[in-house]
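In this section we turn from sequence analysis to structure. A common task in structural bioinformatics is to predict how a protein folds when a small molecule is present, because the ligand can shape the pocket around it. The inputs are simple: the amino acid sequence and a SMILES string for the ligand, here NAP. Study the lines below before reading on.
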Amino acid sequence: MTRAVVATGYGGPEMLTVVDAEPGVMGPYDVLLEVRAAGVNPADWKAYSGAWTTDPLKLPMRLGHEAAGVVLAHGREVTGIAAGDEVIAYPAPGAYAEQLVVPATSVLPKPTTMSWEKAAGLMVAGVTAVHALTATHVGAGDTVLVHGASGGVGAMLVQLAHCRGARVIGTASPANHAYLTDLGATPVAYGPGLTDRVRALGTITAAVDAAGTAEALETSVALAPKGRVATLAGHALGARLGVHLLGGGEGSDPGTEVRMAARGKLLRVWELGKLDVRIGATYHLADAARAHRAGIDGHVTGKIVLLP
Ligand SMILES: NC(=O)c1ccc[n+]([C@@H]2O[C@H](COP(=O)([O-])OP(=O)(O)OC[C@H]3O[C@@H](n4cnc5c(N)ncnc54)[C@H](OP(=O)(O)O)[C@@H]3O)[C@@H](O)[C@H]2O)c1
């Protein structure tokens, strides 16, 4: 048995509790991990918020999608992975736990220079950013507008767009403008007048929305060419505006292949020193509810990570 965080009902973080649970059933192609850190993402609290489903069969709901840890054991058909290996696991459903069984295909070696926290916070944001930049064909010479650029996904979008030779204009609250400048983006405040402020900064050739607001989407379609706008968070309005819908949900491109392939690329870019993961806050696994409240309140800049 292990300790794991579950949502016992649909609602807010008050629904979270820590329970004794099975780490999972280990089959011949699986790996058992001792989790050292688990990444927190907005999808984790949206999953039990009731926004996506209220199916009682999904309760109690294990949480988390990404982790970093040490291999404790593996199934008999697994090759190239040994007990004691330090790894990143993504996809890793149920990652909010002390121990976890994942398919061997989810496991990648953790770079020795990468902390547990950064390793746990890299993949969801990173593969999402790669998917969005691929869907909008961002490359050398582009000027990309990134909404929510100071967020976990946004910071990845900024850094990876630079790697592709693009210039980035990023929206954030003024308190995060210095952070965006450090990342190499031109910061611009979101809020009334956004379209005019961005227009004054140059011609936009692609736009990625990681904010999900009407303002972000309407500014994007006003300034970027048709076919080069994607949203990660505003699917209902995005569908009406005809932009690329990425991730889960009806009519949305899950990008499974591009996201899985992106994992290795992210580690290579990390090894080249061209990518970093800012850690905004860490919480003990048992404090998952507090971690979610901080994420929902939006006052943490950088990834939130749980430490078992
Ligand atoms: N579709 C997918 O596959 C996928 C995958 C991952 C994430 N997502 C979604 O993408 C979104 C961002 O995720 P994340 O992990 O980056 O979240 P995050 O780290 O919490 O960042 C959210 C960012 O949004 C910014 N923001 C807040 N209010 C805003 C507004 N009115 N206009 C513009 N920006 C605003 C914040 O900037 P300031 O702090 O500077 O105000 C913050 O940096 C979430 O909705 C998440 O569910 C989708």
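The CA atoms of residues 207 and 257 lie 22 Å apart. As an exercise, try to locate the residues that line the NAP site and compare them with your own expectations.
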